[in-house]
Amino acid sequence: MGLKRTDARKPWAFEDENNSLKRMLADAMLDNAACKDLATKNF
User: Fold this and answer.
1) Cα angle vertex 29, ends 18, 25, to 5°?
2) Above 80 in pLDDT, residue 15?
3) How far, CA to CA in Å, does 31 sit from each of 17, 21, 23, 37?
4) pLDDT value at residue 40
5) What is the pTM of this model?
6) What's the rounded Cα separation, in Å, for the pair 39 and 41?
7) DSSP string, 1-43
8) What is the pLDDT of residue 8?
9) SS3 assignment, position 4
10) Residue predicted with more confidence, 15 or 5
11) CA 39/CA 14 separation, integer angstroms
């Protein structure tokens, strides 16, 4: 019983993946905000 060495590393993998997904979401939100800003400008 107990944690194996490979089991102890799994939370780190999820944390790395979560951080990557957060960065991707932030980039998409910035792109969306920029597109909305451009769409509302009068040229």
Assistant:
1) 15
2) yes
3) 21, 15, 12, 10
4) 93
5) 0.65
6) 6
7) ----HHHHHHHHHHHHHHHHHHHHHHHHHHHHHHHHHHHH---
8) 63
9) coil
10) 15
11) 37
Tokens of 42: 């009068």
Q: What is the spatial distance between Cα 18 and Cα 3, in angstroms, rounded to a whole number? A: 22
Residue 24 CA to residue 4 CA, distance in Å, equals 32
Q: Does position 12 have pLDDT exceeding 90, yes or no?
A: no
Tokens describing residue 12: 């780190």
pLDDT bucket at 43, cuts 50 / 70 / 90? low
> Which of 7-43 are b and which e, b meaning 16 or more Cβ less than 10 Å from the residue's Cβ?
eeeeeeeeeeeeeeeeeeeeeeeeeeeeeeeeeeeee
